[in-house]
Design a protein that fits this description.
By secondary structure, the chain is an all-alpha fold. The protein has two domains: about 140 residues; about 160 residues, Orthogonal Bundle (Arp2/3 complex 21 kDa subunit ARPC3). The chain contains 16 helices and no strands. α7 runs antiparallel to α9.
C-alpha cells in the first residue's frame, strides 16, 4: 500500500507539471484582464493630460491623476504576478510560468515602477515640464515605452494562436490595440488639429511658412497613425465590421476631451468615425483582403480623415475659433489630404509589401 501511494504521488498532476519544460497554456482570462486594465491605464494617462491642459496640476509628483495612472499599472502588475506564482505552484519553471506573450508585459511592469522613481527624481532635479516638454521628456518617454510593453501583452499572446473573427473572441486584441493607438496619438498630441497648434484660421499672417508646416504635419501625422493601425491589425486578423469605426471614434473623443475648450470641437470625432467606417468597408470581413483593396484603403482612409478634419476646421473657424475660416487656398487644403494618402500608400508598402516572384533554376524547378 505504501509503495502504491508513493507511486501515485509520483504520478500526481503536480509532479507531472513539474516535469513540463514548456510554458502554460493560453489564458483567455488573462487576455481580458490585461486588456481591460489597459483601458484604465490609458484613461489615467488622458485624465492626467486633461489636468495639465486645464491647470489642475501643481508642481508636485503626487497628484490624484498620477494615482489613477500608477494604480492601474499596479493592478496590471498584480494580475501578472498572481498568474506567474499560480503557474509556478502548478509546477512550471520560473522563467516559463507566464503564458506566451506576457513575459515582456511583466518586464514592462517592473521597468515602469523603476521609471516612475526616475521620473520623480527627474522632476526634483530639473523641475516640472510645461507644454510640449511633458511629451518629449526622456523620463516620460521611458514610461510610455514600458506602458506599451504591458498593454501589448494580449496582442502578442493572441498573435500566436489560431485566428478568430468574432467581436467576443477578438475583444482583448481590439481593446489593447485601441489603447496602443491612443498612446501614440497622446504623445504626438502637439501635432493635433487645434487652433493652438496649427493657427490656420483667421487672417492669413504675413509670415506663414511655419504655420503651413505645422498644419501639414498635423493632418499627415495622425492620419498615418490611424492607417498604420489598420494595416497592422488586418495583417493578422479578419476583423468584424465596425472595429475601426469604434477605435477611431473613441480615440478622437479622448483627444478632444483632453484639450477641449469648446464642446463643438467634438465634431472632429465625425471625421475620425468616417475614416473608420471607410476602413471597415474596405478592410473588414471574413475574406482575406486582396492587394488592390489594401492599397485603395491605404490611400483613401488618410485622405478622408484629413479632408474631413479640414472641413471641420473650416466650420469651427467660422463659428467658434474666429470670424473667418481656413485661410489655406485649394493648393493646400486639397493637396495636404493627397499627401496624407501618399504617406498611407507608402506605409502599406512597408507593412504589407508586394510578394516576391518565385525564382526558378535553369531546369525549371523552383529554388
Amino acid at each position: 500500500m505504501t509503495s502504491t501511494s508513493r507511486a501515485g504521488q509520483l504520478a500526481s498532476p503536480a509532479a507531472m507539471a513539474r516535469a513540463i519544460t514548456g510554458g502554460p497554456p493560453d489564458d483567455i482570462r488573462l487576455d481580458w484582464t490585461v486588456s481591460l486594465i489597459s483601458c484604465a491605464i490609458v484613461f489615467g494617462l488622458f485624465i492626467d493630460g486633461w489636468a495639465h491642459n486645464h491647470d489642475k496640476v501643481d508642481d508636485s509628483f503626487f497628484t490624484p491623476w498620477h494615482a489613477l495612472l500608477y494604480g492601474a499599472v499596479a493592478l496590471a502588475g498584480l494580475a501578472l504576478i498572481f498568474t506567474h506564482f499560480r503557474n509556478v505552484n502548478r509546477g512550471y519553471r520560473w522563467s516559463q510560468a507566464l503564458p506566451s506573450g506576457y513575459a515582456l508585459s511583466l518586464v514592462g511592469f517592473f521597468a515602469f515602477g523603476a521609471g516612475g522613481l526616475v521620473d520623480m527624481i527627474w522632476h526634483e532635479t530639473f523641475g516640472f515640464e510645461e507644454g510640449i516638454e511633458a511629451l518629449v521628456s526622456p523620463s516620460h518617454l521611458f514610461l510610455a515605452l514600458t506602458g506599451i510593453l504591458i498593454i501589448s501583452g494580449p496582442i502578442r499572446a493572441m498573435w500566436r494562436r489560431p485566428a478568430n473573427d468574432t467581436w467576443l473572441q477578438l475583444m482583448p486584441v481590439i481593446l489593447s490595440s485601441a489603447c496602443l493607438m491612443s498612446i501614440f496619438t497622446f504623445f504626438t498630441s502637439f501635432t493635433a488639429v487645434t487652433p493652438e497648434t496649427i493657427l490656420l484660421v483667421g487672417p492669413r499672417p504675413e509670415r506663414h511658412t511655419l504655420y503651413d508646416i505645422a498644419g501639414i504635419w498635423s493632418f499627415v501625422m495622425h492620419s498615418s497613425l490611424l492607417i498604420g493601425a489598420v494595416l497592422f491589425l488586418t495583417r493578422r486578423w479578419h476583423l468584424p465590421f465596425g472595429v475601426f469605426t469604434l477605435m477611431f471614434f473613441l480615440n478622437s473623443v479622448l483627444m478632444v476631451w483632453m484639450r477641449i475648450e469648446h464642446t463643438e470641437e467634438f465634431l472632429f470625432a465625425i471625421s475620425a468615425a468616417a475614416a473608420g467606417l471607410l476602413a471597415d468597408y474596405l478592410m473588414s470581413g471574413n475574406k482575406p483582403v486582396d492587394s488592390r483593396r489594401l492599397r485603395i484603403a491605404a490611400v483613401l482612409v488618410p485622405f478622408t480623415y484629413s479632408l474631413g478634419a479640414m472641413i471641420i476646421v473650416q466650420i469651427l473657424g467660422t463659428t467658434v475659433w474666429s470670424d473667418t475660416g481656413l485661410w489655406w487656398l485649394i493648393h493646400m487644403w486639397l493637396g495636404v489630404p493627397v499627401m496624407a494618402g501618399a504617406f498611407g500608400y507608402g506605409l502599406s508598402l512597408l507593412l504589407r509589401p508586394p510578394g516576391l516572384p518565385l525564382e526558378s533554376s535553369p531546369n525549371g524547378t523552383v529554388k
